[in-house]
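Dear support,

I submitted the protein below through the web form. The confirmation email said the job was done, but the results page showed an empty box. After a refresh the structure appeared. I'm attaching both so you can tell me whether what I see now is the final result or a partial one.
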Amino acid sequence: MSIFPEYESYDAVGLAELVRTRQVTAPKLLEAAIERCESRNPAINAVVHTFHDRAREFSQSCSGEALLCGVPFLLKDAGADFAGEPTRRACRLFADHVADADSTLVRRYKQAGAAIFGKTNTPELALAVTTEPEVCGPARNPWNPDFSPGGSSGGAAAAVAAGIVPAAHGSDAGGSIRIPASACGLVGLKPTRGRAPSGPNAAEGFAGMSQHHVLTRSVRDSAAFLDAVAGPEPGDPYHPPSHEGSWLDALLHAPGALRLGLIRDSFNGAPVHSEVMRVLEDAARLCEALGHRVEEASAPLAPEQLRDCANLIFSAHVHADIQARCRLLGHQLRRGDVSYVTWRMAQLGAESSASEYAAALTHIHYIGRRMGEFCSNYDILLCPTLAAPPPRLGMIDMNSEDIKRYMEITSLYTAFTQLFNVTGLPAVSLPLGRCAEGLPIGVQFAAPQGGEALLLQLAAQLESAQPWTGLSPIAGASA
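What the results page shows now:
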């Protein structure tokens, strides 16, 4: 008999309310999650490290008044340190790395009552749009195990879609929350730059392009986790527009009639699949039916502007990161230490000059200002999340030496996401369609700086009009 058979019927907010009202205990929720992890994870390889006993100790003392009291939770194995546990980043160079302190983000999750019991799969150094690392093996999409759950927060997305946890931590430097959210039929919000903390050991990621948040099944869970962690820490390089009150409370209010800019053409020049366009058109019609005004729009930039500067910045940071680790280990980097794609990125970073890096930074800030002006014409931008349906496993190989082909395929999955990392604008992927093979297709909505409340309000309205929370690859499954 399954522990707490109703577990998957509740989102994180619902589970916390059960604990708060003493209808179920926090330890029982944790055991339900552990049971499901042990039975379902072997088929999807979403969770790569667990610390059940530490989570059990935490759940025994969990306060019933905390926002997320007793909610089982998982961390991505990159960008979130849990003291005393490894952060391996799916990379041989970090195989022995054990965190000596909690990340600020993790401390805030704990303070909110989340019962963290493991780490999720990610590609090497969280650098790919699929999750197929050599050291951990591929994560699989619960909708169809022959397909990727996306990346780089692919393990997190697979764990949520499989019903192991209602929400899981992710990070997003080029689409790494929104890409797997689209591939796995989830809600994936990338907040405004600086909204969630990255410290204390890292002030920012990839020149401010990387942001932390969660993958969830419901909109209100995304809002609740933002309430739990949002806010700067001393010394942060970015301070987003302030938000008064609670994002969860903001969902009590309808967004009103909005002006939406509909973008069909990808930002990097990648072709857009016909099934993606069909789902986008359906989403636009749904928005119009809800009373919103949808207008055709085109972003004010050429494809190569975004692609070239982002690649240089990523490569420079990859090189610096690897070199810092090698110095700590007293180790000279060898080709076999990392995948071929990571190796080539590190080489490009080493070959780039400081002035080239400075020029790339200047240019992404220029793009940000142009997009800021463009966004002032609309309340929300509406576009695909991905330019293609989820890829099959093996289609995107970080050990491929055909870098041109690798980048062409990758561009299909960052075609609409990376711009919002470069500009720091908030964007969310919502599960509003399916492709012919039955896999989810997400639609992306973006707002001006600090516009998370409006995004979440519109998302909640769409969720109510076209519910997706009951749609699951494990509907009716037992643990």
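Response: this is the final, complete result; the empty box was a page-load delay. The chain has a mean pLDDT of 95.
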